[in-house]
Amino acid sequence: MTNEYFQCCYTNAEVNLGGTVSSGWQAVAVSPGIPSDVLGTCTKLQNVNSTIQGAMTDEQGNVLDLYELYGDGAYVYAIRSKYGLLDRLGRANMFSHALIFDFQKSGSITDPNVFLGLSSENFKGSQEEAEALKPPLARETPLDIDAAMAKAGISHESYLALVRCV
Questions:
Q1: Whether the Cβ atoms of residue 5 and residue 106 lie closer than 8 Å to each other
Q2: Cβ distance 77 to 8 under 8 Å?
Q3: pLDDT confidence of 107, banded at 50, 70, 90?
Q4: Is there a contact between 28 and 127 (Cβ–Cβ < 8 Å)?
Q5: Which residues pair with 85 in a beta bridge?
Q6: Strands, DSSP E only, in 18-151?
Q7: Starting from the edge strand earliest in sequence, which strands make up the sheet with 92-102, in order?
Q8: pLDDT value, residue 2
């Protein structure tokens, strides 16, 4: 398992240009050398969740902390979006942190623990924290099929039905 990854964060950030402060939705804490197509795909995925309407809460009423996985055939995008933040003007804001793995270089095709075993502590809640993130990434105990099914609450019968559907 490799610790090679790209990162891209997305938020309504403020920019100070010549003493004039403005803000807008933008990518921040982006890894140097990230391919432009990967950056474009990632920001499109993150932008989808940037529309904030009212309180963003989960089923239990807690502030939403969304975790998503996407794949585009070449890369897998592990994205955590944290809501309940405020921008400089007191408006609702979120911070989305993506860790991006090349399917071939990361070994994630043969070992999905590369992206499934990421610890929550890797996903930061601010630009400053994300810029300080360095390899190696923190990992949970690797999952095998039985442990993954137990964690997801899937019985053997449900798993068989899922496989038949796929």
A1: yes
A2: no
A3: confident
A4: yes
A5: 93
A6: 20-28, 65-71, 75-86, 92-102
A7: 20-28, 6-17, 92-102, 75-86, 65-71
A8: 55
What is the predicted pLDDT for the residue at 39?
A: 98
Q: How many residues does the chain have?
A: 166
Q: CA dihedral in degrees (133, 51, 43, 148; nearest 10)?
A: 60
| pLDDT computed for residue 121 by the predictor | 95
Provide the CA 155 distance to its chain's centre, in angstroms.
28
- Between the alpha carbon of residue 71 and those of residues 18, 85, 99, the distances in Å are 40, 27, 12
**CA dist., res. 50 & res. 96, Å (int):** 9
Q: What is the pLDDT of residue 23?
A: 84
Q: How far apart are alpha carbons 118 and 44 in whole angstroms?
A: 22
Residue 133 scores a pLDDT above 70: yes
Could you give phi then psi for residue 47, rounded to 5 degrees?
-65, -30
Residue 73 has pLDDT above 60, yes or no: yes
Tell me the percentage of the chain whose pLDDT exceeds 70.
98
